[in-house]
Amino acid sequence: MKLVFSQHDLQESVNIVLKAVPSKTTMPILECILIDASFNEIRFTTNDMELGIETVVTGEVVEKGKIALDAKIFSDIVRKLPNSQVTIETNDRDVATITCEKAKFDIPGKPGDDFAHLPAFDRKDFITISQFSLKEIIRQTIFSIAVNENNKLMTGELFEVRNNILKVVSLDGHRIAIRNLELKDSCPDKKVVVPGKTLNEISKILSGEMDDPVNIYFADNYLLFEFGQTVVLSRLIDGEYFRIDQMLSSDYETKIVINRQEFMSCIDRATLLVRESDKMPVIINISENNMELSIDSAIGSMDENMDIEQTGRDIIIGFNPKFLLDALRVIDDENVSIYFVNAKAPCFIRDDNGHYVYLILPVNINVNAGR
Amino acid sequence: MKLVFSQHDLQESVNIVLKAVPSKTTMPILECILIDASFNEIRFTTNDMELGIETVVTGEVVEKGKIALDAKIFSDIVRKLPNSQVTIETNDRDVATITCEKAKFDIPGKPGDDFAHLPAFDRKDFITISQFSLKEIIRQTIFSIAVNENNKLMTGELFEVRNNILKVVSLDGHRIAIRNLELKDSCPDKKVVVPGKTLNEISKILSGEMDDPVNIYFADNYLLFEFGQTVVLSRLIDGEYFRIDQMLSSDYETKIVINRQEFMSCIDRATLLVRESDKMPVIINISENNMELSIDSAIGSMDENMDIEQTGRDIIIGFNPKFLLDALRVIDDENVSIYFVNAKAPCFIRDDNGHYVYLILPVNINVNAGR
Lengths: 371, 371
Hints:
Two copies of one chain form a homodimer. In chain A, 16% of the residues lie in helices and 42% in strands. The first copy, chain A, is an alpha+beta fold. Chain A folds into three domains: 2-114, DNA Polymerase III, subunit A, domain 2 (DNA Polymerase III, Chain A, domain 2); 126-245, DNA Polymerase III, subunit A, domain 2 (DNA Polymerase III, Chain A, domain 2, Roll); 248-360, DNA Polymerase III, Chain A, domain 2. A nine-stranded antiparallel sheet of chain A has the order 10-6-2-3-4-18-17-16-11. A nine-stranded antiparallel sheet of chain A has the order 15-12-13-14-27-26-25-19-23. Chains A and B meet through helix 2, strand 9, helix 5 and strand 22 of A and helix 2, strand 9, helix 5 and strand 22 of B.
């Protein structure tokens, strides 16, 4: 095999496929990038068995062939090469010689046939959204998946298509994040759970451009994302996702409208007095168009007042400050509306257009002691 | 005590004194910043017993007094406050109340009298250089102090004033870094060893401006750096520093002139094939105005050729690539001159004006096996 690339194209493609190289594996072949130029096209493939990425690389096939090269070493070399022409040539002992200007590397590879190819995929039902929207919707929900694997479904995100709306949901038992996105084209109703880990990786290789589309294909065990010269295949999580509709209510006793940035800064200051392990709640006291936010910990105490627009009853309620911050951080609106029922029921942060709902469970506080 | 600051001034001063707060200590009072407004001036002091910092803070003394506040909590609070007016007020139980706009913090403090003040200091012999020069000279030498404490003197840097030249030297047994700086004013000859750790911290609070001067005062057990509104006191390391003059020779068998940036990129690429633990040398083969740099490790092999200007004999010599990179990285010249004697003697990287000398010991290689 003999291939010629520009260093720039090579590096770009390597960076894309690197995202599906497992950091730990018992199968050394998975630590490799498959370079396949069996035909007149060069393809790089990686596969960690959860996530698979294949991308077509711009380059010249001087002599056909394929080889699997250790992803870490190969990517390190490519990154450090001068921005010039790079040649990769293999011999019959599967040693790859990489040359660029006056530099020459010899690194041992593995036969390309040893590599676990991506499963064949039937491209039928799909939706098209912009890379920007997909990247955003992941960012706006991914923080509330569960970290530990006790409940596998909680480590993934629901991707549901119904009535030409894509609904993405994540939850961890303490909170729920919901984002809705209207689709331009019609697609049959679908409901799958995608691993959070793979969504994180996909998010990193999306361009984030409004004008770049991504096609998302639905199959029984896989979801396939196709954009630019790249396809990304994600395994799905089996099982029935949680029924969240019954947890969402539009009744409320108190509604407030608050400046998002000010609210975040205020919570930020309060959390200075909380050690990570403490799980100390911030206490919110809403009364007469004023919110008093206070905290009282072993380190010290803090309180701060903010002007708000209040509708309905006064309320005193406690929250894990991190959960409030996580949700507020991914909302773009200048002011947010927050709905409360009582001190033991979840609050809802939601907009009027139904684009987002963030549900957060309160922390039990002794209202009398809570100043 | 009652003091009023702008958040900006307060944060700037806190950031300066933070550098002398120990991360671990058995004396909790040292984890504090002393706020001393016993007179009409506000001073912040910190002291980790090796390094002491005192800075005068811009602010208004409404009521005199002093208090010691936990440095971490206090600095966290200051950093998160809005850029507005900040008031610090203490009560008779040494609780400090920090208010800024609508936010109010109460944190427990300690009596200011508990704090270990900086030792009195006699300001006599001193030199003046620019903050830029001091910051640079530290950066250009600090990397070759020894990391482990087996030989205490190696963990410091020699600051020697002789014939109105400041010479700064660091060495770790494998290499020596020397920088010389001409002084404008005269000062008696001096010779002290300053802990590398304190130099690192000082370097972080220097402005790096050509026009900002720093006075360095010499005393028996201390070195005092005075700049702007700040004084920094560093304890010295006792003992006689190594006699390096006898290690420096101007004889050589081979001299090369090489493009610094190209040489660095080339070494950088070679080190891709070296695992941290391996200590694999790069082999340099100089012959006919060409340098071949090669490495052969368990990961793979690499070689690269570079054009050089050669004077004298051909030579094959091995080096720890990190030592070469460390020295080349802090030289500003486009081309550097490197002098060799033989494959077992140190090489010297030095300029013609005597501003710098970097001595590096080679690694023993079997020349026949070394391709």
